[in-house]
Amino acid sequence: MSIVSKRPQDNDFTLKIGNVNGTGSASANSMLMKSLFRMGIPVCGKNYFPSNIQGLPTWYEIRVSAEGHLARSGRVDLMVAMNAETYRKDHADVAPAGYLLYDSTWPRSQLFNRTDIHILAVPLSRICNENFNNARSRILMKNIMYVGVLAALLDLDMNIIKQLLNEQFAAKASLLDANQKAIDLGFAYAKENFSCPLPFRARTLDKTRDHIMIDGNTTAALGCLYAGATVGAWYPITPSTSLMDAFKKFCDKYRKDPETGKANYCIIQAEDELGAIGMVLGASWNGARSFTPTSGPGISLMNEFLGYGYFTEIPAVVFDVQRCGPSTGMPTRTQQADLMACAYASHGDTRHVLLFPANPEEAFYQAVQAFDLAERLQTPVIVLTDLDIGMNDWMCRDLKWDDSYQPDRGKVLTAEQIAALPKFNRYTDTDGDGIAARTLPGTHPKGAFFTRGSGHNMYGAYTEDAAEYQAVVDRLRRKFDTAKELMPTAEADIDPKCRSGFLTIGSCDNAVKEARAQLAESGLRLNYLRVKGFPFGKDVQDYLDSHDRIYVVEQNRDAQLRSLLMLETRVDPNKLVPVLHYDGLPILARSVVDGVNQDLARGKAA
Amino acid sequence: MSFITKPKVAHPQLPRNELNLTVRDYEGAMSTLCAGCGHDSITGAIMQAAFELAIPPYRMAKLSGIGCSSKTPAYFASASHGFNTVHGRMPSVATGANAANPDLYYIGVSGDGDTLSIGLGQFLHAVRRNLNMLYLIENNGVYGLTKGQFSASADVGSRAKKGETNQQPPIDPALTLLATGATFIARSFSGDREQLVPLIKAGLTHRGFAVIDVISPCVTFNDHEGSTKSYEFTRKHAMTAIYADFVPPAREIRAQYAAGEAMPVQMHDGSQIVLRKADGAYDPTDRVAAFEYIQTHQKAGEIVTGLLYIDETKPDMHELANTPPGPLASLPFAKVCPGNKTLASIQSRLR
Ligand SMILES: Cc1ncc(C[n+]2csc(CCOP(=O)(O)OP(=O)(O)O)c2C)c(N)n1
Ligand code: SF4
Ligand SMILES: [Mg+2]
Question: The pTM is what?
Answer without folding.
Answer: 0.96
